[in-house]
Amino acid sequence: MTLLVAHGLRGGYGGVDILQGVDLRVAPGELVVIVGPNGAGKSTAMKAIFGLVRLRAGRVVFDQREITGLPPERLVPLGLAYVPQERNVFPSLTVEENLEMGAYVRRDDIRPDMERVFALFPVLAERRRQRAGTMSGGERQMVAIGRALMTRPRLLLLDEPTAGLSPRFVDLLFERIRAINREGVAILMVEQNAKKALAMADRGVVLVGGANRFEDAGPAVLAHPDIAEMFLGGA
Amino acid sequence: MAELLQLLIYGIVTGGIYALGAIGISLIFAILRFAHFAHGDLMTVGAYLALSAAAILGLPLGGAFALAALLTAGIAVLIDRLLYRRLRASGAVVLLISSFGVALILRSLVQLLWGPETQVYETAITPPWRLGELRIRPVHVAILTICLLLVSALHLFLTRSRTGKAMRAMADDPDLARVSGIATERVVVWTWLLGGGLAALAGMFLALDTRLHPLLGWNVLLPLFAAALVGGIGNVYGAIAGGLVLGVASELSTLVLPAVYKPAVAFAAIVVVLVVRPRGLLGGR
After folding, report:
1. How would you class B255 by CB atoms within 10 Å of its CB: exposed for 0-12, middle for 13-18, buried for 19 or more?
2. Over 50: is that where the pLDDT of B264 sits?
């Protein structure tokens, strides 16, 4: 039983294929971390799943349903949500309005979900009327993840959620991501903080040059001597 | 002193009219990322549609204005569906130039349908109220009141309604709006409805204050862009502030300059703002 199957993804932005046949699988409630060197196609693979990169070949199936090439506005109602690495909040909108925009596709009462996000990130409750653009990087990341949670997704795609954050925020954010995962939300995450991310991952996938190189349980990837040396900067 | 106050009143009324036009320019720029050069001619179309709505259907002026505003809003959406939408992927310059073409087409259609001569709305002639040395025209009070109501309604729409918030979200970041599942084409339709409707009302008010002629809107395009720029392009509230600044400045300029130089005020305003505060009074993009 798998929630997401991406098979043989090929494609990119212009003439050059960044993805040279990427396979990804996520089971319901699973936490999968993608690691690999710069330019390996990690972010591109996430965007391809979310319909933001044109695929030349390959298929994406979500919950037994073919979603290859569907635009984001069709994917969100199905239970997929994506948090881009950069520019992931609406800067002139307040925290509360950012969360409301996350729930744009919903017509029912969104207050319970907003309260859930506030319970997860209490600092956002205090700042609900503050414009997102005036917040710190770490707080913005919380707004971004909160926005994505507003549709109660079954699969959350996170693109380098801790990039550029101070160590204090990195630990806090990882802890919160685990909490979200424990509530049953499957997570597919690209992460530069590979050691910490793999340590908590159910599964780690190593991408190199736009293709799968290695895959195992998160801690096992971390323990693999070749992988450790190649991508994680030695022991 | 009385003359100054009198000009100030005229300036605020003109400013309110400019604001209605500049809001549309700013909204369209914020959502669709191009300078809409046909905006002045949308004003003209609205003003003439009101003339016909009153003449043919025998509607009172208020009803004619409302109907013409709705029709013009529909025309703006139609132009977008037929033309601008197909060019969206080609970029801002192509859209800007095509809007020049739309401006020419609209203006020619107005001349063809309604003729090149100057016309006026049939209104009862009401003498101005006198307040000491000041004269206040009832029509000015009506225009300003409606401008205030429209601006307040727009504010409520943008800050309270789901679609209004989605418009602001899309102005912030169209890619993230799509990622959030916002129906971006729906937001675009709303942008044209609002921009077109407000432009039509600006045209009618301008024609009510002066006269109808085929160049009515084209002639104020420069002050409208100046207003949008002065306030901060892409910022609706900036467009309102910019409209008032431009309206008052151009009326007050007649104290020291011949009236034919009024348009130069808009140029001067653009230059000053771009030099001193390039992102506009209230900050745009």
Report:
1. exposed
2. yes
Contact B168, A92 (CB under 8 A): yes
A50 inside 8 A of chain B by CB: yes
Average pLDDT over residues B221-239: 93
Domains, chain A, ordered by start: 1-79+154-235 (3.40.50.300), 87-152 (no CATH)
Reported ipTM: the value is 0.92
3-state secondary structure of B282: coil
Residue of chain B minimizing CA distance to A73: B181
- The C-alpha of B259 sits at a distance from chain A's nearest C-alpha, in angstroms, of 40
State which residues form the domain around B167.
2-119+156-276
Rg of chain A (C-alpha set):
17
CA distance B135 to A53: 63
Residue B212 lies in a domain: yes
Give the total number of structural domains in chain B: 1
Interface test with A, best of B161, B179, B285 (most A CBs within 10 A): B179
Query: Has residue B285 been placed in a domain?
Result: no
Alpha helix (H) ranges present in A103-203? 111-120, 122-126, 137-149, 167-182, 194-200
State pLDDT tens for residues A95-154: 999 999 999 999 999 999 999 999 999 999 999 999 999 999 999 999 999 999 999 999
Mutate to test the interface with A, among B165, B170, B180, B182 (most CBs of A within 10 A): B180
Measured CA to CA, the distance from residue A60 to residue A47 in angstroms comes to 12
Hey, which residues does A60 pair with through a beta bridge? A6
